[in-house]
Design a protein that fits this description.
Elements lengths: L2 H4 L2 E4 L22 H6 L8 H10 L4 E9 L3 H10 L7 E4 L7 H15 L2 E6 L2 H9 L4 E3 L7 H10 L3
Parallel strand pairs: 1-2, 1-4, 2-3, 4-5
Helix pairs in contact: 5-6
C-alpha cells in the first residue's frame, strides 16, 4: 500500500458544499424543471470559501475525494471547476446519467464501497438526509451549513434523484 493509499479519506460533496448553486437554482423553480440549464450553469458557480478552506486543510492529512449527485455527463465541467478553484486533485464519484435514486441512497452506496478498503475520516455534505444516513452508519460528518439551498433543490435531491 502506498502512502497515498494508506491515508484516510476526506469525502466532499460539491453543490452547496464547495460550489455555490444559488445563481442556478432558478432553473429548478419552474415547471417542468430545466435540468439541462441547471447543470449547464455549474461552471459559473462561485466557490464557497468555508468549504474550499476545509478541503484544503483536509488535504494536509487525508486524501480528498469528491462525491456528488451530479450526473456523469457533467464530469468535464466538474474537473475543470475543481482545478480552477485550486482544490486538491482527487477521485470524483458521480451519479450515472440514468440514476434517479435519492442522494441519500446513491451516496451511502459509494461511501460503503469506499469504507471497505479505506478509513473515511470525514464526510462533508450539505444534504441533511445524506448526513443523517452517514451518521447512522457510524461516519463522522461535517454538515455544510454555509449555503442555502432552495426548497426546489432539496426536493430534487430527495424525490427526483437529480443532484
Amino acid at each position: 500500500m502506498t502512502e497515498k493509499n494508506s491515508r484516510p479519506l476526506a469525502v466532499f460533496d460539491l453543490d452547496g458544499t464547495l460550489a455555490d448553486t444559488a445563481h442556478r437554482q432558478r432553473f429548478l423553480e419552474r415547471k417542468p424543471r430545466d435540468w439541462d440549464g441547471f447543470f449547464a450553469a455549474a461552471p459559473q458557480d462561485p466557490p464557497l470559501a468555508q468549504g474550499v478552506a476545509l478541503a484544503l486543510r483536509s488535504a494536509e492529512g487525508c486524501e480528498v475525494v469528491y462525491l456528488t449527485g451530479r450526473p456523469e455527463r457533467c464530469r468535464r465541467d466538474t474537473v475543470e471547476w475543481l482545478a480552477a478553484q485550486g482544490l486538491p486533485e482527487g477521485r470524483i464519484w458521480m451519479r450515472r446519467n440514468d440514476d434517479r435514486r435519492p442522494a441519500r441512497r446513491t451516496k451511502l452506496e459509494v461511501l460503503r464501497r469506499l469504507a471497505r478498503d479505506r478509513e473515511i475520516h470525514v464526510l462533508v455534505d450539505d444534504d441533511e438526509l445524506v448526513c443523517d444516513e452517514a451518521e447512522r452508519v457510524g461516519l463522522r460528518v461535517v454538515r455544510a451549513r454555509w449555503s442555502t439551498a432552495s426548497e426546489a433543490l432539496k426536493d430534487a435531491q430527495e424525490r427526483e434523484g437529480r443532484t
